[in-house]
Design brief:
- Belongs to the glycosyltransferase 6 family.
- GO terms for molecular function: hexosyltransferase activity; metal ion binding.
- This protein is of the alpha/beta class and about 350 residues long.
- The chain has one domain: Spore Coat Polysaccharide Biosynthesis Protein SpsA, Chain A (Alpha-Beta Complex).
- It has helices at about 5-45, 95-105, 125-135, 175-195, 270-285, 295-305, 340-345, and strands at about 90, 110-115, 140-145, 160-170, 200-205, 210, 220-225, 260-265, 310-315, 320, 335.
- Helix 4 runs antiparallel to helix 5 and helix 5 (about 270-285) packs across helix 6.
- The radius of gyration is 28 Å and the shape is globular.
- The model is unreliable at about 35-45 (pLDDT under 50).
Length: about 350
């Protein structure tokens, strides 16, 4: 074969090699693209719930008469704002006529969850009857009651735009397990039923009773309630989880307020993130054979330390019937009722 033939053969070989290189590059691109598509499909399966569109703005009704607000007159015996500028709601810090008028224009639905397992079903009647007198009166409220004894739930007359849904759950032998399981059930309820149905949610204890107004002044993106035992105590007395091994650990010298696990709430999106995070942290603790000192309340306090509430409710919104009334508490709105814990709980 001559020189020209050899050169032609080399050219053909290079062309063939280039062709197969292009084909191989195309196959690699397609494979990566298919993998990317599969990843996108997987991600779509786990997308966050589609939250109900909220009406924004604080529009007052024309001609509405209410007391003139003042920058000089107000509560001087308590703090009405946190160090991160979140309002702290006390009697005398809001005008119920004005804020009711503003929020009724928004056509709100407030989901409210309670758990009544075992002997705690005895508290359902007083809770619901008192809520119908004082809790978001004039607004749409949907109660979701988790219980292992649906047949034991008494009939309570509901007002207009008020509904009760009873959800059966498994019985548990330890009150600590009942407490710790709540976050997962709340997370799933928000995902599966509430995301596009309600505007706000409050998660409350059932062994409680309403004595005064609990209304739209409590609404916010993320709402914590200051615990009645510790509202006037220094942080070194707070019963935070102090063991570093726990996901709920808060070191000495840290902390803002001590929040009650018996009442918290906010927007569906923010409470979903709260319950999801606490559920994950509880599972990590369980895998490491550790249980936070106050179970979900300990994890709630850790969450609120790192994710500051946008609104705080004073102990007016979570008192205890056995507590003496403090001078700062002008109104008791919601209170934990007196009971024999050894008798109503399934274990010590």
């Amino acid at each position: 074969m001559g020189i020209s033939g050899t050169m032609l053969l080399r050219q053909n070989f290079l062309i063939i090699l280039l062709f197969f290189g292009l084909v191989l590059s195309g196959l690699i691109f397609l494979k990566n693209n298919q993998k990317s598509c599969k990843q996108q499909i997987i991600e779509q399966v786990f997308i966050e719930p589609k939250w109900k569109q909220k009406t924004s703005g604080l529009r007052s009704s024309p001609g509405l008469l209410y007391n003139q607000p003042s920058v000089l007159v107000g509560r001087t015996d308590v703090a009405s704002v946190s160090s991160w500028l979140a309002p702290i709601i006390w009697e005398g810090t809001f005008d119920p006529i004005l804020i009711d008028s503003i929020y009724k224009q928004h056509n709100l639905t407030i989901a409210t969850t309670v758990f009544a397992l075992g002997k705690y079903t005895r508290f359902v009647k007083d809770f619901l009857e008192s809520a119908e007198q004082h809790y978001f009166v004039g607004f749409r409220v949907h109660y979701y009651l988790f219980t292992d004894q649906p047949e034991s739930i008494p009939e309570v007359k509901m007002g207009e735009k008020r509904n009760l849904t009873v959800l059966k759950v498994q019985s548990l032998n330890r009150w600590q397990d009942i407490s710790m399981s709540r976050m997962e059930k709340l997370e799933k309820l928000i995902e599966n039923e509430l995301a596009n149905e309600a505007d706000y949610i409050f998660c409350l204890d059932i062994d409680t009773k309403f004595y005064g107004r609990w209304g739209v002044e409590s609404l916010g993106r993320l709402v914590g309630v200051i615990h009645p035992w510790f509202f006037d105590a220094p942080r070194d007395r707070f019963t935070y989880e102090r063991r570093p091994e726990s996901q709920a650990y808060i070191p000495a010298g840290e902390g803002d307020y001590y929040y009650a696990g018996a009442a918290f709430g906010g927007s569906l999106e923010d409470v979903h993130q709260l319950t999801k995070t606490c559920r994950e942290k509880l599972l990590i603790d369980a895998a490491n054979s550790i249980e936070a000192v106050w179970q979900e309340e300990s994890h709630l306090n850790k969450y609120f330390l790192l994710n500051k509430p946008s609104k705080l409710l004073s102990p007016e919104y979570m008192w205890r019937d056995i507590n003496e009334k403090a001078a700062q508490i002008k109104v008791i709105r919601f209170s934990n009722v007196a009971k024999n814990y050894a008798e109503v709980r399934p274990n010590p």
